Fold this protein.
Amino acid sequence: MSDHVLTLNAGSSSVKFALFAVEPDGPLLVAGGQAEGLGAEPLFHARVVGGPACDSALASNDHQGAINAIVDWVDETLPRAVIAAVGHRVVHGGVCYAAPIIVDDAALAALETLAPLAPLHQRHNLSGIRAARRAFPGEPQIACFDTAFHRGHDFLNEVYALPRAFYERGLRRFGFHGLSYEFISLRLRDVDPVVAGGRVIVAHLGNGASICAMKDGRSVASTMGFSALEGLPMGTRCGRIDPGLLLYLLEHDKMSVDGLSQLLYRESGLLGLSGLSQDMRTLEASDSAQAREAIDYFVHHICMEIAALAAVLKGLDALVFTGGIGEHSPHVRAAVIESLKWLGFALDAPANAGNAPLISSSASRAPVYVIATDEESMIARHAIDAAGLARAVAA
Ligand SMILES: Nc1ncnc2c1ncn2[C@@H]1O[C@H](COP(=O)(O)OP(=O)(O)O)[C@@H](O)[C@H]1O
Ligand SMILES: CC(=O)OP(=O)(O)O
Ligand SMILES: [Mg+2]
C-alpha cells in the first residue's frame, strides 16, 4: 500500500483530520472526520471515502484523547495504511516562519511563544503536534502556517502606525486563513485562469472570518492583522474595534486582561450582537430582531472591507466566497452582492440559491464565484513536499 499523510487541524473545541494516500499526481483523500465538542460532550465522526459514516461518543474530553481516538480509528479501519508524515495547521508562524517546517524541539518552543497572539488556536495546534509525535514517534511532523501565505505583504500593508521599533519587534500585521487562501488561489487557476492572474478578493467566511486581496495569485493584504481578532466580526470575535474603547474598559471598568480577552475572543461577534448564537444557521432561522441585526452587521462589514481591499488592489476582477458561511449561505452572499451593486456586481439569484460555482449574472462587471475551501488537502500537499514523499513515490 502507498504511503499516507495524516493531517490534523486542531481548533479550540475540535480536531479535524484527513488521511491522504500519496499518489504520483498529488494527495488522494482516503478518509476524514473530526472529534468535536471537546471540553463539553465530545463526539467522534469519521468516514472512509465512499463508505458509511461512523459516529460515536468520545471517552476522553481533551485534545490528546481526540488524537488517540483518530489514530485508533485509522488503525482499525485502514490497518494497512502506513502513515509516513503528519501535517498540522498551525495558526501563527510569526515573523520567522514563512513556509512549512519539519517540527523539532526548538521550533516547538519558538511556536509556543506565539500562543498569546492566537489564544483560540495556537496551544491546541501545538498540543496536536505533541500528541501526534507520541503516536508516530519516528515520522516527520510538518507545521503549516496560516500566516505564511501573507508574508510577502509590502510595508504599507504590514505596518501599524506605531513607532518603528514596534514593527522591528514583530508587532505587525500578519493575516490568517492562509492555507485556505492558498488553496483557493490554486483552485482558481482551474476555475478561471484569466481572472486568477488578476485582482481577486476572497472572503473566507467561517466561524473565524477574514478577507484577502490577491494579485496574480499572491496575497497583497488581509483584513486580519497582528492577531485573528482584527477585521470582520466573527462567530464570537469582535473584529474591527476602536483601541480607545479597550483602554476605556481597562481604565474605567477596571476590566482584567483575562476578562478583556474573554470578551473580545469568546463573547462578541455574532454571538454577542445576537445574544443567541455564534452559528449562522441558527441566526438565519431565528425571528429575533437582534439575530437579524447581527447578520446585517456581518454583511455591512464584509462590504466595507471588500471596498477597502478593492482600493488596495486599485480595481477588482473577481470576488470569491468560501468558508462555511461563504459556501452555504445564499442569504449572506445575496446581501453582500446587493450592497456592492455600485461596484458593478449583479447576482444570478437561482444560481446563488443553489450554491452554484458561479453566482454572478452576465450583467455583472466581474464574476462572483463560490469555491469550497480545503485546508486539509493544502496541508497534505505541504507535508508531502516537506517530507520528500513526492520524490519517493515518483522513484
Ligand atoms: N447551510 C448553511 N447556511 C448558513 N450558514 C452555514 C451553513 N452551513 C454552515 N454554516 C455556517 O458556517 C460557519 C462555520 O464555518 P466553518 O468554515 O466550518 O468554520 P470553522 O472551520 O472556523 O469552524 C457556522 O457559522 C455555520 O453556521
Ligand atoms: C485564524 C482563524 O480565525 O481560524 P478559524 O477560522 O479556524 O477560527
Ligand atoms: Mg476555519
